[in-house]
User: Fold these one by one.
Assistant:
Number 1:
Amino acid sequence: MRDEILDLLRELAAIDSVNPDLVPGAAGEGEVAAHIVGWAERAGLDVVVQDVEPGRPNVIVTASGSGGGRSLMLNAHIDVVGVEGYAAPFQPVTEPSRISGRGVLDTKVGVATALVLARHALGRGLRGDVVVAAVVDEECGSKGTDALVASGLATAAAIVLEPTELTIVHAHRGWAWGRITVHGHAAHGSRPDLGFDAIVHAAPVLTGLAALQARLTTLPHPVVGAASIHAGLIRGGTEMSTYPARCEIDIERRNIPGEDASTLTGELTELTRLIDPRVRTEVTATFGRAPLMISVDEPVVQALVGAGPGLPIGASAFWTDAAILAEAGIPSVVFGPGGGGIHETEEWLDLESFDVFHRVLWQAVRSFCE
Ligand SMILES: [Zn+2]
């Protein structure tokens, strides 16, 4: 099974699938999706292609069980981040202890492992279905897993195959984006009597933000750690000799379980109260994603715990598509191998970690779907 997975991994990693929403004009997921379709059809698996956007399909591959068992989704994304500065991103290199190349770890190893496990599940007499969801756009807007959920695909549980260094991740923070707009009044720079400076009057928001961040660090969640808040972007003014009529501060918050988009808008509204009351302000929520928090007693968590006794259980610092699946009612956990260089110019999969990963995953699939 090991060599079969690594062969498929090298094939997938040799195909450029840079997310075109991250890098305009990039290749996208079409070619790698087509390769998966061909592989899965030759393996005798059921294949459904779900067009998320033109040329950007999810591929859903099913090893049908005999019936009456629990179905399990193995979800991994097929898009990769940009390759600026990466010498030979799509020529995977195999060394004794690692395979390197863009996307090998994040997450083509997950895609390859899931597909090969599905093939091995055929004819094993499992009662539940093993469903591989090879999804697009995780690195940007998660349109792939959104489309999956919108299509009504439902399984009893899911494992999202992101690189967790063999930690069984049952929780992570979510995030919310919001904006404070401060309105001033434009006037010639020589006319302080007519102008009202939106940038200067926005300043209390920034100092208030620093105080809020300091307060959040004192209130950690027992599993995922503390929420956090920071300024992401600031825009204001039109030219040097004009009083700025507008200043916008875009703010990101990392949310802990129990918080949602309204947590941020509530805090931003509080921050605007620090501003001179003569100033007009607006608070808007722009985007966000829920945190993940499922019980360690969930059968899918216990399947991994049983398959890999002694592996750590906990939270990841990063957000994953598991939160979308869990919000749709599919208990979801995140599990994957280790390595390094994700989103950098030398990405690699650690093969020692991979050997544990694929064995534990296979054992968990069998025990969950038997
Ligand atoms: Zn990823």
Note: The chain has a mean pLDDT of 96.
Number 2:
Amino acid sequence: MSKFLYGIDFGTTNSALSIYDEDKKEIINTIKVPSLLYFLKEQSAASEELNYVVGEHAITSYLEDGMKGRFIKSIKQILSRSSFIETKIHHKRYNASDLVALILKDLKAKADEIVGYDCKKAIIGRPVFFDDDSTAKDTLAQTRLSKAAALAGFTDVRFQFEPIGAAFAYEKTITKKEKVLVADLGGGTTDFTYLILDPAKSGNKNRKEDMIASGGIYIGGDSFDSAFMWDQGTPHFGKNTKYEATPGKVLTVPISLFANICSWDQMNFFNGLRIKKDMENYYHYSKRDRKFKNLITLIDNNLGYSVFQAIEKTKIELSEQEISQFAYSNMEIEIDEQISLSQYNTIIQKDINKISVYLDEFMAKNEIKPEEIDSLFLTGGSSLVSGVQNLFKTKFPHISVTSGDNFTSVAKGLAYSGYLFED
Ligand SMILES: Nc1ncnc2c1ncn2[C@@H]1O[C@H](COP(=O)(O)OP(=O)(O)OP(=O)(O)O)[C@@H](O)[C@H]1O
Ligand SMILES: [Mg+2]
């Protein structure tokens, strides 16, 4: 019987698992699942295991359930949050590793079904930095991810930087030695690696001398969606609503409420009773501001994910066309606005600039000269954003840009990293 190992890319938005046949030295299958969890509204007494749904089914169940249960997105972002200890769902406590393990378990079960046994060997990807530059947070995230892997049933685990995974997938497609800059723009992070790829060395035990530099920044598609929500979404939810705090004293409702609905790590766990009470008060003393009511509707009915789906749809359309409609109509929340690509570019400009500044620093620090780069490999869903593509075209006009499968190249390259077990 063949022996297998799994390359697992646990992503902020999408996760993928590639099954590598160690005897035939090839990938036999790649499974993809959106990194989404949905805990059903009602707890079934019969089996606790059945109270949550993973991936695409999380979306259908959330909708079927009237959006009343707990929908969790971008769970990778909480790995590095020291302030997140646990959350209680249906009387059960879940820490970050418990939640991540549910996604890893789902992938593992699907893959085990294909290979026909309980495969415990995996190479799991990790971003170059889980969060900014804090080593303590990074260590915390790595520890939590290791625990999640163990909970999911993996006993033989190695970690690899995600962009190196992407690079190894690209290496399978080239015919000669190249110095390559890889940029992986995902939902949560943008990761870079600069390395020498050589098809003759693919799968070799020691590739250390080929790795020149790796780095990354905590900006990705979620950052673009947050910026869009802030700019185009929050005005529909009553940003800057005025209320009469005491007779004659008019204040503006706290801006933090709107910051919370822009960021997933806040949104996932935004259900405190006190905040709801405060919101009722603001609403009352704003003379029942119609737009502020939308915010209450959004929170009370757990509509965050559906609003962000509309935001993502607008973004994806603008990767292909010059104009799109940002439309949302639900429970008396009515949004219908035309958004041009140039407007969108302005909204995400700050984030694009941050990526640009980081890339310049990365190149300078590692003494990488643009003229010595042979090729540029762009991957990850956010590499499709027009503003991102322009950034690379402007910085490296002389280098042709290649891209592989934006959603599976990391998992595939991780599966090609079996040499890590030989150290
Ligand atoms: N056609 C498109 N145009 C623009 N953005 C897109 C497109 N398709 C997907 N995206 C965005 O790409 C992101 C997901 O990309 P990807 O699956 O590479 O991320 P990830 O691997 O889950 O995240 P990370 O690597 O940061 O953990 C999301 O923000 C999604 O909205
Ligand atoms: Mg990724």
Note: The chain has 13 helices and 19 strands.
Number 3:
Amino acid sequence: MEELRRRLETAGLDEASIAAAFGTAPNQEAASLHVRRLAATDPRAVLVQLFLLGEPVRSDALPVDAAELEAAGFVERDGDVVRALLRLTPYTGLLLAHDGENTEHHPDHVAGLNNSARTAATFTVRRPVDRALDLGTGSGMQALLAARHARSVVATDVNSRALRYAALNARLNGVELDLRDGSWFEPVAGEQFDLIVVNPPYVISPDSQYLYRDSGLAGDTVSRDLVRGAAAHLREGGYATIMCNWICHNAGETWQPLEEWVADTGCDALLLAQKPVDPFHYAARWNEAMRDDPDAYVATMERWLDSYERAGIAGIGFGAVLLRRRAGENWHRGYDLQQPATGAAGDHLLRLFAAVDAPLGDDNEVLAAHFALIPDHRLEQRLVYRDDYELTDVNMLLDEGVGLVARVDASALPTLFALDPERPLRAALDDGAEVLPTIRRLYELGFLTKR
Ligand SMILES: C[S@@+](CC[C@H](N)C(=O)[O-])C[C@H]1O[C@@H](n2cnc3c(N)ncnc32)[C@H](O)[C@@H]1O
């Protein structure tokens, strides 16, 4: 299997060569357009058509032996025509098999790489550990990523189709996984882990149609129970990432409803919240696939909106809870994310934990401390012209981070440019500039470390 993956990658089914050909990493929506720019015989075009778009191709155009793909169960042949039986998506050096749209309406559909799966991967703390758990593994993606830095990985699911995909992906990518069938934490009762990743069926709805989407539990119970369950299965010092949706009963709430979930868990917690979505747009987003059947779409939307109204839902929060088990008095902090998470945010998460663990002292201590900016950050500034150009806003963003944006006071910029970790902050001060609020903000938001 591994050999077959290597041959597919060499033939062009890998992120880098697809991005080089298409100018962007492949996604389902854009791939069909991009594929038109390549010669029909370009092996990358043929592989993208077959395995990303699910279109039939001619066997003589395939850069990999069709009989071998058939023997692996990846395709079926009909004379000269080859059809994919699954999808193959390259992702950060992995090749992931999963279902295509043809099974989208089946209860046991195994989804591929979507925003939530990518964000869960981005929000995972990546450090060498002993034992990791991926609960609700689906295609096995989070488990395979965890195996890069964990000695052993347990991956669970109630969907036997998902477990078959996870087993296939483990073989395809040359990784060993301990796959277990069972609901929520049942298959790991009494066990502890150093890392837990949960990207569950968190959608808040009155339905229980799809295993990957609906938990069958009322409201946001599933997210709450999984946060508390993950806390109970963490070893001291271990981290957990739980992707969540939650109910906001009051306008203006973002991460606040999560505070009660993490109370008395024995864990410190970062509560990472995107801007809540209003119930109508939330229901429309999750039922988009029904749009070609207007009657069913309207009936479903009404059912979902009625259930939200009955539950007094003002908005639906989405984001993640990050836990770290720690003996002693625990804390939690909420963060309003303004951007999607990008790259690998594990180091950013560790800086957020560290900033709460070791808060900055009084102004004199701050001036005497040595600070370093995080490499690969961006400053975005806006200038307004009146009599002259006037700098109004400056924001700092990270290339790899959870999606926080830090406001920088324009008057603090010369000090930031002069920051030198070998010298105290005081040595970088620009005369008369008010820099301390910016320094404190950058430190608390993980844009600045203290030496
Ligand atoms: C949103 S998918 C996430 C899949 C994968 N972890 C990822 O990030 O791509 C949720 C997964 O949870 C599984 N699931 C649903 N109910 C479950 C349960 N009671 N216990 C364990 N897993 C469950 C589904 O079968 C599905 O594979």
Note: Residues 2-85 form one domain.
